[in-house]
Design goal:
The protein has 16 helices and 13 strands. It has about 425 residues and is α/β, with parallel strands linked by helices. It has a single domain, classed as Alpha-Beta Barrel (TIM Barrel), CATH 3.20.20.70. The longest helix is centred in the middle third of the chain and has 21 residues. The radius of gyration is 20 Å and the shape is globular.
Length: about 425
Amino acid sequence: MNETPTTVRRDALSKPLTLRSGVTLANRLAKAATSEHLADSRGAPTNQLITAYRTLAHSGAGLLISGNVMVDGAALEAPRNVVIEDGRHFAQLGRWARATEGTDAKFILQLSHPGRQTMRGNVLPGRRQDVVGPSEVPLAVGGNRLFRAPRALSDAEITEIIGRFARAARIAANAGFHGVQIHAAHGYLFNQFLSPLVNQRTDRWGGSLENRMRLLVETVRAIRATTHAHFLIAVKLNSADFQRGGFDADDSLTVAHALEREGIDLLEISGGTYESTAMVTGTPQRESTRAREAYFLEFAERFSEELSVPVMLTGGFRTRQGMNDALDSGAVDIVGLARPITYEPDLPQRLLDGTAEKSLVMPKTVGHKAVDDLLNSAWHQQQIARMGRGRAVRPQRSPAVALVIALLITSRDLLVPWLAPS
């Protein structure tokens, strides 16, 4: 029988996956977390954010993961983050959760706390910014004008943070989301506790790896205890921090085993921090790995060999063949797409039905690495903003135009840190 463009091919990408919680994903493609910054000034989801996710829900991806949803309005990853501290935004959260109605997509929120990676000015209006971490170890990028030195959390405050994540997850469950992803990668608070370079505590939260992973493990337990049995719990974990003497692949695998014992549904592998941005550039790789497209693929292969929990990998996947090869080899169970899906919102469906063989997304560059990193994030964020206004994306938007738009939109936020007193 001849296939039609709407026929889903019976290959690895199209296979459903049932997770430990009983949630079944319709296929092996996920819309990975992306920077959105489309909340209102109070931290509530806006109509624009909800509309963007209605578009993404029809992309064909079996799983949608939101960008950073913060659990503390005194410490934001960026201006206009969604914030869940209590039930005040419950109605808007419910509308956001219902963005997937009429589709097979499952929708989970990425819960996060930036810890010492809280840039000056990133706080809800009327709140006093509180930059915290496991220890008083400042961030080695940006200088004091961009990032305040953190204060060390007390034992009681650490317990309170666990409660914040559990409360946000319970509200998400009640609002109708299918689950949450705990962001324990990219140098945010959980990653800071895991790192022996940043975590210099000598109490039950520091020292040994068992102590350094305690915050993450107890947060998973608290979320599981306060949500229903079919609520999906995922964790995004660094394969390594790529810093000498820091959190490495052996540490990461030990933590992954602990998370598996706690019964998480899904483990997403990533890497790097603000001080070592491997999550943007990828890691140095052998030629054989580069030929297989994805960043961190060698780490994923090792994890998959030793773990039974499904592994998701995001970053670098561009071809249908490369995605299927990674799935067929058993290296990954879910392929995450971030920039490709903002460039071509219907790409997952076209990969599934065989009408697309690769993503057309290309890096946006002006020739300066620091500017290019900012530009690429801003360019794709602008495409999500267009979806939220009910408009088609603009794949041909030039880097120069995107950069000007980004600077105009964020000019006030960029000025605040530099003008704030030391």
